Amino acid sequence: MRAAVIEELARPLVVRDVPDPSCPADGAIVRVMANGICRTDWALWSGNFWAGGPRVTTPFVLGHEFAGVVEEVGSEVRWWHAGDRVTFPMNPGDGDCATCRAGHQHVCEHGATLVPGVSYWGAFAEYVVVRFADANMVALPESLGFVAAASLGCRYIAAFHGIVDQARVRPGEWVAVYGAGGGMGLSAVQVAAAAGANVIAVDISDDKLAAARRLGAVHTTTAAAPEAAAEIVELTGGGAHVSVDAIGLAHTCQASVRSLRTRGRHLQLGHTVAADGGQIAVPIDLMLIKELEFLSAFGMAGHQFGPMLAMIEAGRLNPDEVVSHTVGLDEVSSVLGSMESFGTAGVVVIDRF
User: Which residue numbers delimit the Enoyl reductase (ER) domain (predicted)?
Assistant: First the structure.
């Protein structure tokens, strides 16, 4: 099969033939029809993943945001068959640990070894292996195309789980989104707007903010993070009910917290970079005296996709609008390179292999 291979970190990927994967007894082989290019891919490729996070050993194939068609299933798989249209959550589970049995497969106790494109070769290729298929794979409705479905597998589901389940956004609330023009940020904007919130989009790019307006933001600002927080507090008459850091930088996280009204909820969706050492200082005394909540979302379990897919089929959500453009395998390196300076808008999807 053809794959885009990391031969050397931070150097252009090499598109070449590699051996087809073998199917595990508990898993499946999926023919990849589309795969999103995520900032996590950039972090792994550039060696800039958060401190203590995974590192890749070359040669390696990235790709964890995919949708496709089941090619083969293992002997232990009961619910899937060749020809099924599927997607796969960014963080799968083994279905057997205590956390999985409680319904939280996306934070499985053994999940770090199960992520395609992170812990083993992924979907920047014609085929990819998925583990524990019965516990994780999600059927795609015929109405949902593969490119839109590929945008769901990481950033969109994290935004949905974060906005709906974790932050409990309600109609009429103010929701600020820092880093609103990236894939995670635009997903959060669209989901929060669909939940009935008044969304304030914060980004440094006018073009990205224009995209956020198209997806439902009612106010935008290019102010630097400290000034943006003050602007949001004034605009909302005391602060946002929910504020989202969709990037994971120190100044965006801190500004997000400072944007909140008393008893507001901060939602962390973005990872830190290696330079932060896995830690960001937060205004803890302010959080204490205002009784702020600090929440996070790390993907979403496959069995929780139902409400999101129902909203998509009803036209309440449209992940197609989060996709900025599509590329072929031989264009992936340029996309990864542009992510160093946050050069991509929305989700870029590989659809030509």
Answer: 4-350
